[in-house]
């Protein structure tokens, strides 16, 4: 039994359970007192106790904390439908979250000050697994899906670097990784979804059915519906992965080589990062070729023409699963050191290739090691032609770079966090000025006007979808869009 199951059981055992809502006092009642509206019958439970509500007021960022009035641990999709309808009637807000205290948001995006958080990790069943796709609950983590699909030699085509994220949470954002140059993001590889809209309707949508909802919900930041199930594309994968790491001292060459690699497709995975080297910074290429034992990759052919620094190449082989799960040991160590629990004022950006070199140089020149707190700086490109998701906003260029400052606030003081968040904001202003876009999962204060600019020229479409699917603004207030 996992520690997660134990903690949920403990929470349920000690929990105070609501049976009604009093619209006059705007509070829950654990008995059916006069004037109270009974809750709909639930297969799961609505938790009111402080421990559950406090857990739902935290996320990976540890920066914002809004305590909900209740936490729904759904026992079925029917519970989610019933509670969204109830919330709509009673003027309450609702948001889905990965799990109590396990949300990977960094700025309160899954929190709800006056309303209900739905713990999606309670619904985490893999319902079907066939040759081309898997039909899964939104609370399933990519890690779990991969463990189930790999025995048949199948994998989702794109995985995030960290695979403990929920399928529903990443489909609401985007889901980028080193295979995105070939396949697009995870949102470009979902085939069908069951969604509970802000009207409380359960709707199945896909490219061929209820297309406007399908297009709204992918990268829709939880604004239009709660994804309850998804059919995720699976592809054949080879069982082994050979990883090549090599350093560049020249940013121009690094970016050029990365762009060349995503065009010629000789590797299966292309990422890169900015690393500390000899008291300065260097650029680390990370590329991977999958293979079957007996037909090992030909290193010299794969590396031909790349201009990394001689003597810096490292080559390692491992299983596909260990490669996909490569961050697990590091994260275990960070947890043991207590650093995983520090605030994370992260900033992820999409930078047009045409100005990537200048922009990256400018940001790096203003970013000290102390500003990063040893967090990684990611830098890698993908191709705009692989993208199909209208509300995933990316710059207008053939190639786009993900440039991520994954900061840890050390020291973890409110002053340091505030200063780093302010730095994020200033960088976002520069990014916008050069035609870049944020990947909106981060610790950046954004006004409604910023959001309008972010979704331009699709803002009207975004606002129209809100009116159509969540006219009373029940869903996901923590994004601060409306
Ligand atoms: C350590 C770490 C590593 C990461 N690595 C990557 C990476 O490699 N690539 C990448 O693209 N991103 C990455 N991210 C960002 C991540 O994809 C987003 O933060 C994602 O939204 C988190 O998913 P979650 O399951 O924790 O969702 P939550 O934080 O619980 O939710 C995120 C948002 O989506 C909404 N939401 C959650 N579930 C649903 C649902 N079922 N239906 C509708 N709305 C929902 C929430 O209300 C909230 O607004 C990383 C984040 C962390 C903390």
Automatic annotation (TrEMBL):
It comes from the Bacteria. GO terms for molecular function: cytokinin dehydrogenase activity; FAD binding. GO terms for biological process: cytokinin metabolic process. InterPro entries: Cytok_DH_C_sf, Cytokinin_DH_FAD/cytokin-bd, FAD-bd_PCMH, FAD-bd_PCMH-like_sf, FAD-bd_PCMH_sub1, FAD-bd_PCMH_sub2, FAD-linked_Oxase-like_C, FAD-linked_Oxidoreductases_BP. Residues 64-237 form the FAD-binding PCMH-type domain. PROSITE patterns: FAD_PCMH, TAT. This is FAD/FMN-containing dehydrogenase. The lineage of its organism: Bacteria, Pseudomonadati, Myxococcota, Myxococcia, Myxococcales.
């Amino acid at each position: 039994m996992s520690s997660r199951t134990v903690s949920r059981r403990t929470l349920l055992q000690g929990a105070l359970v609501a049976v009604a809502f009093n619209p006059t006092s705007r509070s829950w009642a654990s008995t059916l007192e006069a004037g109270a509206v009974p809750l709909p019958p639930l297969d799961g439970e609505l938790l009111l106790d402080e421990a559950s509500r406090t857990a739902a007021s935290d996320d990976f960022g540890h920066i914002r904390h809004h305590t909900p009035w209740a936490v729904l641990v759904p026992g079925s999709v029917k519970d989610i439908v019933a509670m969204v309808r109830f919330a709509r009637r009673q003027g309450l807000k609702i948001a889905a979250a990965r799990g109590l205290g396990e949300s990977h948001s960094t700025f309160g995006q899954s929190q709800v000050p006056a309303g209900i958080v739905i713990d999606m990790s309670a619904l985490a069943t893999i319902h079907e697994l066939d040759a081309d796709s898997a039909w899964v609950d939104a609370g399933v983590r990519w890690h779990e899906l991969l463990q189930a699909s790999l025995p048949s030699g199948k994998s989702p085509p794109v995985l995030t670097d960290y695979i403990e994220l929920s399928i529903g949470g990443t489909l609401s954002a985007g889901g980028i990784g080193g295979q995105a140059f070939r396949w697009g993001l995870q949102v470009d590889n979902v085939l069908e979804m069951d969604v509970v809209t802000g009207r409380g309707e359960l709707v199945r949508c896909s490219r061929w059915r209820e297309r406007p909802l399908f297009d709204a919900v992918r990268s829709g930041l939880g604004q239009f519906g709660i994804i309850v199930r998804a059919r995720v594309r699976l592809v054949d994968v080879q069982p082994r992965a050979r990883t090549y790491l090599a350093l560049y001292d020249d940013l121009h060459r690094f970016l050029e080589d990365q762009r060349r690699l995503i065009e010629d497709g000789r590797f299966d995975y292309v990422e890169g990062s900015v690393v500390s080297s000899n008291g300065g910074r260097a650029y680390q290429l990370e590329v991977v070729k999958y293979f079957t034992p007996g037909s090992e990759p030909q290193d010299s052919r794969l590396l031909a023409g790349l201009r990394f620094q001689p003597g810096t190449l490292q080559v390692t082989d491992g299983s596909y699963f260990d490669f996909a799960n490569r961050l697990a040991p590091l994260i275990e160590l960070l947890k043991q050191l207590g650093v995983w629990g520090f605030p994370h004022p992260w900033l992820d950006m999409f930078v047009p290739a045409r100005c990537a070199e200048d922009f990256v140089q400018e940001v790096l020149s203003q970013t000290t090691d102390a500003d990063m707190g040893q967090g990684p700086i990611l830098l890698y490109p993908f191709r705009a032609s692989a993208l199909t998701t209208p509300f995933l906003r990316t710059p207008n260029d053939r190639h786009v770079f993900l440039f991520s400052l994954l900061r840890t606030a050390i020291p973890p003081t409110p002053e340091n966090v505030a200063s780093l968040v302010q730095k994020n904001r200033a960088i976002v202003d520069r990014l916008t000025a050069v035609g870049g876009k944020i990947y909106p999962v981060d610790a950046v204060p954004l006004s409604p006007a910023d959001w309008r600019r972010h979704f331009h020229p699709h803002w009207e479409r975004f606002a129209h979808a809100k009116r159509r699917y969540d006219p009373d603004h029940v869903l996901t207030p923590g994004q601060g869009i409306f």
